[in-house]
Design goal:
Distance between the termini: 18 Å
Helix content: 25-40%
Structural class: alpha/beta
Radius of gyration: 19 Å
Bound molecules: NADPH dihydro-nicotinamide-adenine-dinucleotide phosphate, the ligand Nc1nc2c(ncn2[C@@H]2O[C@H](COP(=O)(O)O)[C@@H](O)[C@H]2O)c(=O)[nH]1
Strand content: 15-25%
Strand order of the largest sheet: 4-10-9-8-7-6-5
Number of strands: 15
Length: 325
């Protein structure tokens, strides 16, 4: 089995088919909607809040609101009252079932629901998918997180409309250190193996460190990419602003950190500081432009043309050129 990650793969250009990168279409469909780029900021407290989600929805981007300390029923009502789609996250506890029932009781139906737990290959997720499909049949259900093809097959068979792949590659993740499990260091090849069996969209989650990693994720089978750290350091990011030596930073902490949980129990996340780097809207535009370039290097016009390119693995035992033949 080939093992590689974002930092030791490069994609190989094909003959250009556009006169300008502006001809390259970065949009992607997820569920019944189309979004400007295949990128969703992580559903974490220091990455998104209600204001950012509203802005993303109004401006053609996909979002998934976090599930921590949030009244999901009010959130769905407010978003839809503002003319936005509603995309929420749920866990698998009694209170999450109560949320679904409360939504139904109030005649509210979110367009997207992400089941967001650490070990998503679990009967608890199967049960929640079944509950969602019974109670909110029109919701597009994203289930995760998982790390293996077996898990993707199970989640799809249980009714997930999309799966989220990535256990442990996140920048504030310490799952691997604490448990010995995960896809950190080989997330891209884990994605490749999962994508081989997937029949529905995969969201690659965690480990993206530069914009080129988005195109690499698409190449290896992702339909969308979830990103935390690259989004946590904006002026509008919800994390607290901290000054160190005259420089400004935003705090970024894991959802399974004691900072998020409020207690030190089953901690699998840490807190770091991300340098403040400007406005979110500018980063999103830059991502779109960089992806347009990626598509042009791929000799294509549309996002999925990136899937057609060959690649090289740099260094290590698997080094070499990999041709699509
Ligand atoms: N993508 C990743 O690599 C990871 C992401 N996270 C994020 O942290 C947040 C908290 O996650 P999580 O702790 O799952 O959420 P919750 O605290 O809501 O736990 C969800 C449920 O799953 C159980 N559970 C959690 N981990 C395991 C496990 N390894 N084996 C069996 N049961 C388990 C919990 O019970 P109990 O606590 O009693 O075991 C609880 O019933 C989420 O946002 C998640 O996405 C966390 C770790 C890894
Ligand atoms: N193991 C943990 N993973 C976590 C935690 N909180 C969030 N996450 C995952 O990280 C990605 C973001 O990764 P990044 O590399 O883009 O920063 C996020 O979407 C979650 O899947 C955690 O506490 N522990």
């Amino acid at each position: 089995m080939e093992i590689f990650d974002y930092d030791n793969i490069l994609l190989l250009p094909r003959k250009c088919r556009v006169a300008s990168r502006s001809e390259c279409d970065t949009s992607v469909e997820l569920g019944s909607r189309s979004f400007r780029i295949p990128v969703v900021p992580s559903n974490m407290k220091t990455v998104v809040d209600e204001k950012i989600c509203t802005w993303l929805a109004h401006n053609g981007y996909f979002y998934a609101m976090h599930r921590f300390g949030l009244d999901n029923v009010r959130f769905v009502r407010d978003m839809q009252a503002k003319g936005c789609y509603a995309s929420i996250s749920l866990g698998v506890k009694r209170s999450d079932y109560d949320t679904v029932d409360a939504l139904v009781a109030q005649g509210l139906a979110p367009e997207y629901v992400s089941i967001d737990i650490a070990h998503g290959h679990a009967d608890s997720v199967r049960n929640m998918i079944e509950h969602l499909k019974a109670r909110l049949p029109r919701a597009f259900v994203i289930a995760g997180n998982v790390a293996t093809p077996e898990a993707v097959i199970d989640l799809e068979n249980w009714g997930a409309d999309a799966t989220k792949v990535g256990v442990g590659p996140g920048k504030v993740c310490i799952t691997q250190l604490k448990t010995g499990f995960g896809t950190g260091g080989w997330q891209l090849s884990a994605l490749k193996w999962c994508a081989r069996v997937a029949t529905r969209p995969i969201i690659a989650d965690g480990g993206i460190r530069s914009h080129g990693d988005i195109a690499k994720s698409i190449r290896f089978g992702a339909s969308m990419v979830m990103i935390g750290s690259l989004f946590a350091g904006h002026e509008e990011s919800p994390g607290q602003t901290v000054e160190v030596g005259g420089a400004r930073f935003k705090e970024y902490y894991g959802s399974a950190s004691d900072y998020n949980k409020g207690e030190y129990r089953h901690v699998e996340g840490k807190r770091i500081l991300e340098p403040v780097k400007g406005r979110l809207a500018d980063t999103l535009v830059e991502m779109e432009q960089d992806l347009q370039s990626s598509i042009s290097y791929a000799g294509g016009r549309r996002l999925m043309d990136v899937r057609k390119v060959n690649y090289v693995i740099l260094g290590g035992d698997n080094a070499g050129e990999h041709l699509l033949m």
